[in-house]
What does this fold into?
Amino acid sequence: IFSNCDNASIPSSNALQPPVFSYNQPGSYTVNLLMDEFGLNESAFCRNIVVLPKPVPDLGNDRIICDGSSVDLDAGEGFTSYKWNNNATTQKVTADQSGIYEVEVSNGGCSVKDQVQVDVEMITLDNITTDIDCNHASGQITLNATGGVEPYLFYIDGALHSNGNVFDQLS
It folds into this structure.
């Protein structure tokens, strides 16, 4: 007779052959097996079973990065092992090339995979320039970006430029 088997697939059994049990919730469970009950060879067997939660790695959404940059991919902490498709065995890897990055994590009992697509794109800048001359007291540059992911942010001297892609009053 099996007792104390909450959340088990079979709460108890008196079958000749013990059934296979499965548990639908993580936790600690006690399985008691009483063999040859009321017989001359009666014996009992008791085991504590720990059911681990299913590991849940999360690499996030697919990503687009600019050529020359990289993105850190983090499978999450707390797993007993990590195996990436680039043979790394760490929690994090750095992606700087286009491709599918996949990790398999384990909690010591179960293994689960997650993957993310990383695309590296080139950004091209075309410019229209107004030179300083007798007719123009200050110069202007308009930068037109293509590729990558909008919105584009433009900086001058380390500060975000408030006029978007047009840089005027240049001297």
Confidence is low (pLDDT under 50) at residues 1-5.
